[in-house]
Write a structure and sequence with these properties.
Helix content is 27%, strand content 36%. It contains 7 helices and 12 strands. The N and C termini lie far apart (54 Å). Strand 5, helix 5 and strand 6 form a beta-alpha-beta unit. It is an alpha/beta fold and 255 residues long. The chain has a 7-stranded mixed sheet, sandwiched between helices. The chain has a 5-stranded mixed sheet with strand order 1-10-9-8-7.
């Protein structure tokens, strides 16, 4: 059995959609559309930042939007392209780091969901990403994103979850590190190798880390990058964020 220790979202990309089958992408898409409507904003083009396997990108494209997807994982983008090909739709997908990506043409809107920004471990990383997003947006464009709050990450218990499918096994190990104040997930997966029957398996090991920053810090970094913060909402609602909020949605406008 082959074994691979790799960066996040390499081998995991092959089974990501199966493991995340319950993720409410439709609900998130509807919510973001309602946020746009609240601010009388009707974009034609949108960037899905950290788009992963393109599930949100596809839903946006089905609404008639011109979609660009950016992600650092080539394997995740391969899945996204296949998804669009199967749906007979088109989006431009760009392999790039969210801290330093560039687009050929600016877009009307940028979204970033599923706590992707929590993967940024240092304040400089977040600030660099906000600067890149600012460059990617047309003046007056909206940036809508979610983040896990420090309160949410500190509540995560040390647990082990097992996932099984016809061609995979996955051990998901959650851990909150109070000294570094980050949530760490260790994945140990086994993927069946095509054409080799029951004896052909590849093991992979990935470590994912998330860090959360205070809402006040994120707000200050947005303003420093040239954004006006229009609203900060409690998860998938229009209620103001509170200290008990576990997932916060930011709505920021490029000045």
């Amino acid at each position: 059995m082959a074994r691979r220790s790799v960066k996040p979202y390499v081998y995991f990309a092959d089974i990501y959609d199966q493991i995340m089958a319950d993720v409410p992408y439709h609900m998130w898409t509807d919510y973001i559309a309602s946020v746009w409507a609240t601010f009388c904003f009707a974009p034609s083009s949108v960037l899905d930042l950290a788009c992963g396997t393109g599930s949100m990108s596809l839903l946006l494209a089905r609404r008639g939007l011109q979609v660009t997807g950016v992600d650092v994982s080539a394997r995740m983008l391969d899945v996204a392209r296949l998804k669009f090909s199967g749906a007979q739709l088109y989006a431009e997908f760009i392999e790039a780091d969210m801290r330093s990506f560039e687009l050929k043409e600016p877009v009307d809107a940028v979204i970033c969901v599923f706590d992707s920004l929590n993967y940024l471990a240092e304040p400089d990383d977040v600030q660099a990403t906000f600067a890149s997003v600012h460059r990617a947006l047309k003046p007056g464009g909206l940036f809508v994103f979610d983040v896990n709050t420090p309160n949410r990450l500190a509540m995560i218990k040390k647990e082990v979850h097992l996932f099984e499918g016809p061609d995979h096994y996955l051990v998901w190990n959650d851990l909150w590190d109070p000294s570094r104040k980050w949530w760490k997930v260790k994945l140990t997966g086994f993927l069946r190798t095509p054409g080799k029957g029951d004896d052909g398996w590849t093991r992979f090991d990935e470590v994912h880390r998330e860090r959360a920053f205070p809402v006040e810090d994120v707000t200050a970094w947005l303003k420093g990058a040239g954004f006006e913060v229009l609203a900060i909402y409690d998860s998938s609602s229009f209620r103001p964020v509170t200290k008990a909020t576990s997932r916060a949605y930011f709505v920021a406008k490029r000045q």
